């Protein structure tokens, strides 16, 4: 039975993990489509929680000393996905960090298992309209360079949204307020759920 959508909701596993001292040494992993704010919100959230922040794509670029577009040009999407997996494996082995993932990392089943086992997975949702607005001037994302961006984003959403939802411990609507307010909202929800006072319903993903 599909879960009813709310501004934020939790999985049973997430509630159990949050019974520990407030996120001590626990990883927070942000997933969601491009433009949902994973990197910007992740940085703010990490600062609020006293954790290190890592952006998977940025770490990959620094490690290889080339940008993501160049990796796609030379090795194709399959080559990029393998390098992305290797970097995720490295980042997920750390503790007490906030990790912003690439939008397509959930396409691989081994990545989904990895993220679920490595920390609390937070899915930042965003509407296609707001996503298109945010990415209207973007020229850096290889998969977005298409004549009809709306159609491309819609196709990716159809393919990826069920995968995000399947591994998410927490889902939050992104895009309706500032980055600072979004980070504060996620932080507050984490605190409320741990204290047992969250207004968001507890649900279990099928």
Layout of SSEs?
Elements lengths: L7 E3 L1 H6 L10 E4 L6 H12 L2 E4 H9 L3 H25 L4 E4 L8 H10 L1 E6 L2 H7 L14 H19 L2 E4 L5 H17 L11
Parallel strand pairs: 2-4, 2-5, 3-4, 5-6
Antiparallel strand pairs: 1-6
Helix pairs in contact: 2-8, 3-4, 4-5, 6-7
Protein described:
With 206 residues, the chain is of the alpha/beta class. The protein has a single domain (8-194), classed as Rossmann fold, CATH 3.40.50. It has 8 helices and 6 strands, in the order E-H-E-H-E-H-H-E-H-E-H-H-E-H. It has helices at residues 12-17, 38-49, 56-64, 68-92, 109-118, 128-134, 149-167, 179-195; strands at 8-10, 28-31, 52-55, 97-100, 120-125, 170-173. The chain has a 6-stranded mixed beta sheet with strand order 1-6-5-2-4-3, with helices on both faces. It is globular, with a radius of gyration of 16 Å. The N and C termini lie close together (7 Å).
What does the main sheet amount to? 6 strands, mixed
* Rounded Rg: 16 Å
The CATH C-level name is Alpha Beta
* Total of helices: 8
Largest beta sheet: what is the strand line-up? 1-6-5-2-4-3
Could you tell me how far the N terminus lies from the C terminus, measured between alpha carbons in angstroms? 7 Å
Element string (H = helix, E = strand): EHEHEHHEHEHHEH
CATH topology: Rossmann fold
Binned, the helix content reads 40-55%
Strand count: 6
In terms of DSSP E residues, the strand content is 5-15%
Q: Output the CATH homologous superfamily.
A: P-loop containing nucleotide triphosphate hydrolases
Q: Segments where pLDDT lies below 50 for 5+ residues? A: 1-7, 197-206
Shape: globular
The CATH architecture assignment turns out to be 3-Layer(aba) Sandwich
Overall tally of domains: 1
């Amino acid at each position: 039975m599909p879960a009813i959508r709310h501004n934020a909701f939790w999985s049973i596993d997430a509630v159990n993990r949050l019974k520990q001292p407030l996120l001590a040494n626990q990883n927070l992993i942000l997933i969601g489509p491009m433009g949902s704010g994973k990197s910007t919100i992740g940085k703010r959230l990490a600062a609020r929680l006293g954790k290190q922040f890592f952006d998977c794509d940025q770490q990959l670029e620094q490690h290889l000393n080339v940008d993501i577009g160049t990796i796609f040009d030379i090795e194709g999407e399959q080559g990029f996905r393998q390098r992305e997996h290797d970097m995720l494996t490295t980042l997920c082995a750390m503790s007490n960090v906030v990790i912003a993932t690439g939008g397509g990392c959930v396409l691989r089943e081994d990545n989904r298992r990895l993220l679920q086992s490595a920390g609390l997975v937070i899915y930042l949702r965003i509407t296609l309209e707001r996503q298109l607005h945010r990415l209207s001037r973007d020229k850096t994302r290889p998969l977005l360079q298409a004549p009809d961006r709306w159609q491309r984003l819609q196709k990716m959403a159809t393919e990826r949204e069920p995968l995000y939802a399947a591994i998410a411990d927490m889902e939050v609507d992104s895009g309706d307020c500032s980055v600072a307010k979004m980070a504060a909202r996620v932080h507050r929800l984490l605190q409320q759920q741990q204290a047992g006072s969250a207004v968001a319903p507890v649900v279990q993903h099928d």
